[in-house]
Design brief:
Elements (H helix, E strand, L loop, with lengths): L1 E10 L2 E7 L3 E6 L6 H13 L18 E10 L2 E10 L5 E4 L2 E3 L10 E4 L4 H5 L2 H15 L3 H25 L7 H40 L6 E5 L14 H5 L7 H22 L10 E6 L2 E2 H4 L2 H22 L6 E5 L7 H11 L4 E6 L12 E6 L2 E4 H6 L1
Parallel strand pairs: 3-13, 3-14, 8-12, 12-13
Antiparallel strand pairs: 1-2, 1-4, 4-5, 5-6, 6-7, 9-10, 10-11, 14-15
Helix pairs in contact: 4-5, 4-7, 5-7, 5-9
Length: about 400
């Protein structure tokens, strides 16, 4: 897949923006705070329906405006697709495909993007929510219909939490909570599908992550991925492991086995949930445990090892999408990554990514970017885009 052209209206610091991109490497250069990452963020939004920088949509809308527009012309071989999304400060977003109204969760069917960013270090060093976000954004690209499943789960979770808080405030227990059973059924149905999809993804990423890690780090430290599941009895969100039940669930468990554990976990934790007014079990409290040398990356890995794991996760994601998608390679975006890496990892990462159909690199210092990625250079200054190739053509 290629992004041929990107248009923005009232997105971040851009009142309007027009960016032409080319096959192969594209370099966006400019001092920090000029708008490079905003361009990358807009492309990523089309593929993942979210930002790698913020958890809500409102910050992406320019100050004083009610909505922003991201529009991109995408090339899938000989086929062209015009994808557009209206990002609203409040309320649901709207989308169009080739000019016709569409649901936003249809966009990832057409836009395939893998982003590398400094924030990726939080995937391995941060709290469980960073690892869940990484996983779920990849799930949406791999299986777009899961965007609706994840959204429905969040909606049901909010309703259930509201009911628990209300019950706690009113002191309601026992039979007075019959309505909670209805929300439990919905939570189990949606949550089991999410847990199963996450486990399958972790299993499918295992070998690509190991291969990418060795290519980046030049060493085989046996990287591993495994989900710690709250339905197993523990609470990974609060640092507890997945409990004894989790070890009995193989990575490709069928949803019914997960559903039975989920329902039993809800029953076991109901009293505690009523005390806290919070749902304490489900995929929203699971954690993706990453290990190298048989030790958890978080707390044990060096800075270099942590970066190697983070980069390996992104490279493995790209390879997985590349192998499964009939649309060709995903677009790779390397957002201010090279400034964070030593010279050896810079060269290794550049060599591993240069062969993709399209690569977009942002950097504050052009010299940080290895020569193999220098091709089409665009300079960004205070929201102004200066394309050196177009200027030369003039």
């Amino acid at each position: 897949m290629i992004v041929e052209h990107l248009s923005l209206v009232d997105f971040r610091n851009y009142a309007t923006a027009e960016l032409t991109l080319h096959r192969g490497p594209n370099v966006l250069v400019g001092r920090n705070g000029q708008g490079k990452t905003n361009l990358a963020e807009a492309i990523v939004f089309l593929a993942t329906l979210g930002s790698h920088r913020v958890s809500s949509d409102a910050p992406m809308v320019r100050d004083g405006q009610e909505f922003a527009v991201i529009r991109a012309r995408l090339s899938h071989g000989e086929r062209r697709v015009l994808a557009e999304v209206q990002v609203n400060r409040q309320g649901s977003n709207k989308a169009r495909i080739n000019g016709s109204p569409s649901k936003p969760n249809e966009l990832p069917r057409y836009a395939h993007v893998v982003l590398f960013a400094p924030e990726d270090l939080q995937i391995v060093r941060g709290d469980p929510s960073a690892r869940r976000r990484f996983t779920d954004q990849l799930l949406i690209q791999r299986t777009p219909r899961l965007a609706a499943v994840l959204a429905d789960y969040d909606r049901v979770l909010k309703q259930r939490n509201a009911l628990l808080k209300s019950a706690r405030a009113r002191g309601v227990r026992g039979e007075g909570l019959s309505t909670l059973d209805v929300w439990d059924d919905k939570l189990v149905s949606l949550g089991s599908e999410i847990i199963t999809a996450r486990q399958r993804l972790a299993a499918d990423l295992q070998q690509p992550v190991a291969d990418a890690y060795e290519a980046i780090a030049g060493a085989d430290h046996r990287p591993e991925l495994e989900w710690a599941l709250s339905v197993g009895g523990g609470d990974p969100e609060e640092g507890e492991d997945g409990g004894e039940g989790a070890s009995a669930i193989d990575r490709l468990s069928d949803p019914q086995r997960i559903a039975d554990l989920f329902r039993a976990s809800l029953a076991a934790k109901r009293s505690n949930e009523l005390d806290r007014g919070l749902t304490l079990t489900g995929p929203h409290r699971d954690d993706l445990v990453l290990r190298v040398r048989d030790l958890p990356v978080k707390g044990y890995a060096s800075h270099g090892e942590s970066w190697s794991v983070a980069l390996a996760l992104r490279l493995a994601s790209a390879e997985l999408l590349r192998s499964e998608s009939p649309a060709g390679d995903p677009v790779l975006i390397l957002d201010d990554v090279f400034a964070e890496l030593d010279a050896d990892r810079r060269q290794r990462l550049a060599a591993l990514t240069a062969g993709y159909e399209q690569v977009v690199v942002t950097a504050a210092v052009e010299e940080d970017i290895p020569e193999v990625l220098h091709a089409h250079v665009v300079r960004i200054s205070a929201g102004t885009i200066n394309d050196e190739r177009e200027a030369a053509d003039d």
